[in-house]
Amino acid sequence: MSATDISGSVAKQLADVEQANVEAVREAADLVLGVIRADALVYTAGAGHSLAAVAETFYRAGGLACVYPLYHPDLLPLHGAVSSTKTERRSGLAAEVLAERAPGPDDVLVVFSTSGSNPYPVELCIEARERGAAVIAITSRACVAAAPRRSSSTLVEQGTVVLDSLVIPGDASYPPDAPRTAPLSTMVNAFLWNLVLAQVYDRGTAEGLDVPLWRSSNVEGGDEANAALLEKYSAIVPRLK
């Protein structure tokens, strides 16, 4: 397979993902629009390499400003690769993370987890739903079905809306007949989130909503445009400071 073949394969994956999630993306956008109307927050979470998707949602040029990222340093592989895997398998961590601030009935929790079976992401969903928050699960149904069941439920079972990345078990995509490398989940997670954002923007502006979006700080007027958002959200999203 050549580089051209790989790019074609990735393009097909994204096209398939978009087609498979038309209704789910609409439902996810409904939930996010509800947050904006209520002047509430979108909480985002993940563990391991799914934290790349959380970073994509937070303080991102073109991204939503009303985002509260849930995070614990032990979940990041850069702070300890093996320990990060152990951490997301530790029951009780979700409650510790949510002790700082937890979503309520007007908020939405977005959880990225390709395997969707470890205690941390699943317990986040359970606690959020107990508090009345809706959950957008961005995962792979195939990976969840194949993964060892390490908690009382799964992300698929807990999601109010489930966006399916269509990633195959193991995440790798190359070579096609026996995949060992070229994982796709990070790319697909970002793509699914952007599909939601695009629909939120189009539908929100059509109804006259002021969709709170960051501007790049590296373009003329970016810092000035972001100043009002920083003033509004820094008090309730400490990681903006």
TrEMBL record:
GO terms for biological process: carbohydrate derivative metabolic process. It holds the Pfam family SIS_2. SUPFAM superfamilies: SIS domain (SSF53697). One of its GO terms (molecular function) is carbohydrate derivative binding. Residues 32-206 form the SIS domain. InterPro entries: RpiR-like_SIS, SIS_dom, SIS_dom_sf. NCBIfam families: PRK02947.1. This is SIS domain-containing protein. It comes from Amycolatopsis camponoti.
